[in-house]
Design brief:
Thiol Ester Dehydrase, Chain A; 4 helices; 6-stranded antiparallel sheet; elongated; alpha+beta
C-alpha cells in the first residue's frame, strides 16, 4: 500500500513522480450489464461474453468479460485517481498487456499502479511508465500491463 495519502498523487508533474511509489484505486463491481454494454459498443458479441447457455459448455462455465473491457477499466479506474488531471499531455500507449485470468460478472476489481520509470522527452515534457495490475477480490491479477504517459514538467507549466 502507498505510504503517501491519496491526495499526494493528484495532478502530478513529471518532477513529482517518484519511482517505486504505488497507489491503489477504488473498487469496481463488474455486472453482466457492464459486459453486454461493452459488447454492444465495441460490436464484439462473441458468445463467450453474451450467451450463458454457450458458456456452460466452455472451460469457464459462465460468461466472461472481454479482455479489452478489463484494459479499459484499468484506464477508467486510474483516471478517477486524477494522477495527471491537469498535467497530462498524452497517453503514449500500452505495452506488455497480458490477460492472465478471466473476469466474471460479480467480480470486484481494483487497479494497482506502480511508477516504474521516467525519462525526459524531446518535446520538453516527461514520459512516465506505470506498471498496472487489475486485481480481483481474491487478490488474483487478472490483467497486467505497462502504460506510458506523457506528462508536463513543472518548469514548462509557466
Amino acid at each position: 500500500m502507498p505510504t503517501k495519502p491519496r491526495e499526494a498523487f493528484i495532478d502530478l508533474f513529471y518532477e513529482d513522480v517518484v519511482i517505486g511509489d504505488e497507489i491503489v484505486t477504488d473498487i469496481h463491481h463488474v455486472t453482466m450489464d457492464d459486459v453486454l454494454t461493452f459488447g454492444r459498443v465495441t460490436r464484439d458479441q462473441h458468445p463467450l461474453h453474451t450467451d450463458e447457455e454457450y458458456c456452460r459448455r466452455t472451460t469457464f462455465g459462465r460468461p466472461i468479460a472481454h479482455g479489452l473491457f478489463g484494459l479499459a477499466l484499468i484506464e477508467g479506474l486510474k483516471s478517477e485517481l486524477k494522477l495527471y488531471e491537469n498535467t497530462s499531455v498524452a497517453s503514449l500507449g500500452w505495452d506488455k498487456v497480458r490477460f492472465r485470468a478471466p473476469i466474471f460478472p460479480g467480480d470486484s476489481l481494483r487497479v494497482r499502479v506502480v511508477f516504474d520509470s521516467k525519462r525526459e522527452s524531446r518535446n520538453g515534457s516527461g514520459i512516465v511508465i506505470e506498471k498496472t495490475e487489475l486485481i480481483n477480490q481474491d487478490d488474483l491479477v487478472v490483467i497486467g500491463a505497462e502504460h506510458a504517459a506523457m506528462v508536463r514538467k513543472r518548469n514548462a507549466a509557466s
